[in-house]
Structure to design on (755 residues):
């Protein structure tokens, strides 16, 4: 018998119930994630190495760029060297004004001034077009319109190149702007950044100077017009005054108004004086009528003469009274004294008469002056009425002349201020930090690029790994089998030599083997696969089959599974190999076992264990031979086999199984053997296997590790319909021992006790 080497790395077999997956959604399966990374580590490592290699090559090929930054402060405060207001006001303090300065610095006009200053039109860095631009021009994307001047096209290209290399950024909410220029040369980068800042300040000064100059020119021309207008207005005022004899005495008043005002003042004084003279005249006349001796008349008249005479009169009257009392009325001294008193009385009366005459004259003069002033005032009022009509037009002319004079004076003062401002212009910004020559390139940032490339490649590798894991349609672990199929996984059978060959290989290539020798090699390989348990009892595969045998006993749970069908969803999953070796394991345990090749279309067991059989199950089902005449015994293992010999195409296999003959075969085998293992046909391609499952006690589903699609296995179980509960469990076959340790439980000595 052909020997094979089955010394694969030991693969631990996990009985049913020993590998319990955590319930979905309970906890994060960190170990599962770690296993995914381990089994897909090659994909991750390849992705990381490839991306890092491309990144490193790109960094080597990319020419470095250097960036220099000049810092400019926008000063919102308006400097007042002189008290006059500037023609062009400051930038402003709001955010929009500061952001507008960013646009000014990035404008093509400022870029053109920098280009002319630094002569960038002859700089190869700014003149030479890149590969993308040349390709775009070839594809008619960036082609310039016909007739465009070549110099203008070159200038526009240089402006675009400079603006692409220039970046202006505002620092947060401050008034500080950063002007950054990138170039292939660090010295050039610093020089251009400072040039942009200088041209920005120069542009501010130039803009203010131009605005002030334009204002001065306009004010000068306007002053000439205003001067002529003022002269004309003043001439019109003077001519109208001369024409209407309107004399002004200054302060906005004319002569007639002043005369009326003066006469009004005189009238007030004259009336007061007349009233005073009238009162005095009445008082004197009353005093005179009462006699000179009336008490208080002297004080009323205020005359010193009358006062002295009254004093003398009183003294004389006193002496006369004294003398008359002493000497009597006829005494000469009394008579003389009385004569003196009479004389004094006459003098007082004469003085009073003179005073009355003077007061009367004074009163009459006052009345006459008042009447004269009233007549003059009435005449002036008549004249003022006539003059007022003439002054309406005069005031209109004067107002117009005054307005023109005021405007002219304002324009004249502003013109003088503007002329002074032309020589004094202060920028609204200043360079607080000029650009310095950078020491290290700003692009590419190799460490940063490598870090990003490393992180990105790792993320891409991980994403690709998890994507491949998610797209893997096959079963890779016990947990997956139990989760997707709802069946206990009774064992994990490692891949053995010979199973790696396709189940139905194509013809050999020329020169490698003859058709006959190739067929013999395939028959020998299948023969060895069916007898692994007998030829390699200490191999991992043999131990895994024994584990399946024990698992079947626990999975039976007292249901009495005597007849067991070995099924699979698709062909080539190793069910025949498992059926033969499971039968050998049961036989080695002291059980009487019969192995039935129930695959009427592809009897692999018969080709391996009974290649010389001429009659088999087909003859029994057709009633041609009894069961005893077709049973054979494998000489190497002593295993009883019911072969299936095909003599042609089988078109009614399901009908043959559904006859009473197949039930009779199973019943007789039940009586003669402890266990009957039936190698059934695949469930999906044909219906034969479904018919067999309907007649056995239980079924063992074989799933090829990593190849059989999950949906196919689930569909195979669904095809069993009401017989799905007959499936006792499932096994994973053809498991790669090196890779399985990254999918499930591993590391439990598969060679324990082996020598």
């Amino acid at each position: 018998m052909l020997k094979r080497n089955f010394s694969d790395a030991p693969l631990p077999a996990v009985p049913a119930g020993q590998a319990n997956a955590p319930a979905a959604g309970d906890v994060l399966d960190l170990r599962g994630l770690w296993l995914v990374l381990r089994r897909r580590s090659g994909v991750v490592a390849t992705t990381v190495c490839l991306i890092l290699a491309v990144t490193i090559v790109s960094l080597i090929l990319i020419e470095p760029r250097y960036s220099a930054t000049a810092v400019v402060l926008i000063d919102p405060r308006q400097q007042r060297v002189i008290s006059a207001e500037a023609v062009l006001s400051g930038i402003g303090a709001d955010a929009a004004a500061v952001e507008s300065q960013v646009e000014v610095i990035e404008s093509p006009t400022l870029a053109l001034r920098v280009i002319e200053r630094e002569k960038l039109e002859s700089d190869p860095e700014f003149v030479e077009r890149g590969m993308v631009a040349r390709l775009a021009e070839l594809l008619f994307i960036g082609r310039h319109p016909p007739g465009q001047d070549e110099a203008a096209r070159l200038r526009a290209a240089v402006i675009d190149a400079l603006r692409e290399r220039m970046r202006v950024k505002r620092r947060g909410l401050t008034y500080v702007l950063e002007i950054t220029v990138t170039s292939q040369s660090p010295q050039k980068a610093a020089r251009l950044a400072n040039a942009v800042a200088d041209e920005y300040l120069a542009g501010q000064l130039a803009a203010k100077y131009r605005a002030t100059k334009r204002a001065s020119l306009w004010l000068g021309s306007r002053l000439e017009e205003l001067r002529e207008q003022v002269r004309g207005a003043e001439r019109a005022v003077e001519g109208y005054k001369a024409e209407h004899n309107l004399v002004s005495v200054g302060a906005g008043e004319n002569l007639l108004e002043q005369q009326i005002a003066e006469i009004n003042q005189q009238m007030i004084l004259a009336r007061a004086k007349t009233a005073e003279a009238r009162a005095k005249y009445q008082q004197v006349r009353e005093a005179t009528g009462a006699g000179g001796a009336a008490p208080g008349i002297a004080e009323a008249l205020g005359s010193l003469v009358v006062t002295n005479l009254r004093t003398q009169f009183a003294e004389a009257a006193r002496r006369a009274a004294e003398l008359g009392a002493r000497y009597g009325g006829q005494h000469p001294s009394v008579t003389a004294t009385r004569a003196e008193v009479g004389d004094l009385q006459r003098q007082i009366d004469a003085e009073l008469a003179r005073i009355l005459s003077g007061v009367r004259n004074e009163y009459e003069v006052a009345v006459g002056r008042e009447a004269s002033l009233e007549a003059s005032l009435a005449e002036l009022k008549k004249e003022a009425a006539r003059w007022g009509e003439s002054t309406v037009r005069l005031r209109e002319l004067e107002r117009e002349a005054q307005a023109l004079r005021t405007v002219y004076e304002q324009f004249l003062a502003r013109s003088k201020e503007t002329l002074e401002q032309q020589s004094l212009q202060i920028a609204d910004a200043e360079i607080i930090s000029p650009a310095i020559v950078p020491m290290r390139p700003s692009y590419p940032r190799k460490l940063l690029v490598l870090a990003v490339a490393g992180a990105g490649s790792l993320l891409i590798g991980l994403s690709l790994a998890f994507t491949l894991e998610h797209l893997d349609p096959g079963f890779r672990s016990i947990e997956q089998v139990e989760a997707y199929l709802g069946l206990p996984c009774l064992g994990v059978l490692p891949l053995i030599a010979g199973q790696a060959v396709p189940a139905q290989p194509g013809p050999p290539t020329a020169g490698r083997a003859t058709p006959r020798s190739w067929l013999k090699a395939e028959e020998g390989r299948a023969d060895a696969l069916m007898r692994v348990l007998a030829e390699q009892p200490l191999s991992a595969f043999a131990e895994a089959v024994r584990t399946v045998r024990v698992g079947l006993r626990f999975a039976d749970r007292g249901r009495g599974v005597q007849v067991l069908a070995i099924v699979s969803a698709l062909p080539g999953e190793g069910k025949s190999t498992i059926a033969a070796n499971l039968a050998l394991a049961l036989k080695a345990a002291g059980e009487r076992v019969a192995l039935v090749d129930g695959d009427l279309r592809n009897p692999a067991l018969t080709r391996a264990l009974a290649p010389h059989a001429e009659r088999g199950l087909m003859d029994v089902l057709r009633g041609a031979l009894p069961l005893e005449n077709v049973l054979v015994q494998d000489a190497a293992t002593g295993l009883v086999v019911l072969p299936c010999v095909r003599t042609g195409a089988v078109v009614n296999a399901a009908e043959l199984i559904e006859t009473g003959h197949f039930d009779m075969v199973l019943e007789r085998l039940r009586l003669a053997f402890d266990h009957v293992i039936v190698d059934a046909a695949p469930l999906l391609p044909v219906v034969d296997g479904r018919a067999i499952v309907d007649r056995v006690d239980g079924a063992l589903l074989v799933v090829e590790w990593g190849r059989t699609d999950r949906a196919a296995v689930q569909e195979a179980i669904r095809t069993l319909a009401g017989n799905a509960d007959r499936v006792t469990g499932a096994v994973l076959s053809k498991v790669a021992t090196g890779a399985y340790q990254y999918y499930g439980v591993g590391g439990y000595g598969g060679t324990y006790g082996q020598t």
About this structure: The longest strand covers residues 66-74. Residues 494 and 735 are 4 Å apart (CA to CA). The radius of gyration is 68 Å.
